[in-house]
Amino acid sequence: MPGDILGNEILNKDREFQFIRGPLFSNIVLADEINRTPPKTQSALLEAMQEKQVTVAGKKYDLNNPYLVLATQNPIEQEGTYPLPEAQLDRFMFAIKLDYPTVDEEIAITKSTTNDELVPLNTIFTSDEILETQHLVRRIPVTDNVVEYAVNLVHKTRPESYLASDFTKNYVDWGAGPRASQSLILATKTHALVSGKYAPDIEDVKKVAIPILRHRVLKNYKAESEGISMEHIIENIL
């Protein structure tokens, strides 16, 4: 239920209502197999992910900062699951596809998870350092031609747009919204920063386009029946 993740008001020993915070009040929240969550509970995440606050019994509570929501979905087993609405999917910046590990990777995984060795956890970043880095990313300058390329790319995912190709009109039912443009620019800035650049270029946009767009573009029945993947659609647009 929504109260399981938001928290609940209880009557304490002083006969006063006291709010007990749920697991959403963390810096990093992992929703494992989020599509097993009923729609009413999924919708409770929307305010948290967009506004960084939750509302319980008419009162608003600010969430911790920095705040990050990670979620997993099992693409194979669909019994007992609830598809995430497009509005919620749009709140996630990236959709990262995890395939089976390679043989060498699986050997390493098997070795590390079947012994009795304790792995020490070391602090790498403090909360203040993470917030400082987030502000640094936003201060990175972006030229107009890079912004225009990113926005045009998003518009080309929309079948009704004059920029859309015949391929998009044939295989896409619904395109990405304005949040995709915002996420593209933020991810482009971050990719440039990690790559050691002073400012991002169009190649940085291309590098982050697929994980930004794959969950925001809805392909139609024709694409499904012909086995056309979302990655193929985005690569065609690129």
TrEMBL record:
<dbReference type="InterPro" id="IPR011703">
    <property type="entry name" value="ATPase_AAA-3"/>
</dbReference>
<dbReference type="GO" id="GO:0016851">
    <property type="term" value="F:magnesium chelatase activity"/>
</dbReference>
<dbReference type="InterPro" id="IPR027417">
    <property type="entry name" value="P-loop_NTPase"/>
</dbReference>
<dbReference type="InterPro" id="IPR050764">
    <property type="entry name" value="CbbQ/NirQ/NorQ/GpvN"/>
</dbReference>
<feature type="domain" description="ChlI/MoxR AAA lid">
    <location>
        <begin position="169"/>
        <end position="236"/>
    </location>
</feature>
<dbReference type="GO" id="GO:0005524">
    <property type="term" value="F:ATP binding"/>
</dbReference>
<protein>
    <recommendedName>
        <fullName>magnesium chelatase</fullName>
        <ecNumber>6.6.1.1</ecNumber>
    </recommendedName>
</protein>
<feature type="domain" description="ATPase AAA-3">
    <location>
        <begin position="1"/>
        <end position="94"/>
    </location>
</feature>
<dbReference type="GO" id="GO:0016887">
    <property type="term" value="F:ATP hydrolysis activity"/>
</dbReference>
<dbReference type="InterPro" id="IPR041628">
    <property type="entry name" value="ChlI/MoxR_AAA_lid"/>
</dbReference>
<dbReference type="Pfam" id="PF17863">
    <property type="entry name" value="AAA_lid_2"/>
</dbReference>
<dbReference type="Pfam" id="PF07726">
    <property type="entry name" value="AAA_3"/>
</dbReference>
<comment type="pathway">
    <text>Porphyrin-containing compound metabolism.</text>
</comment>
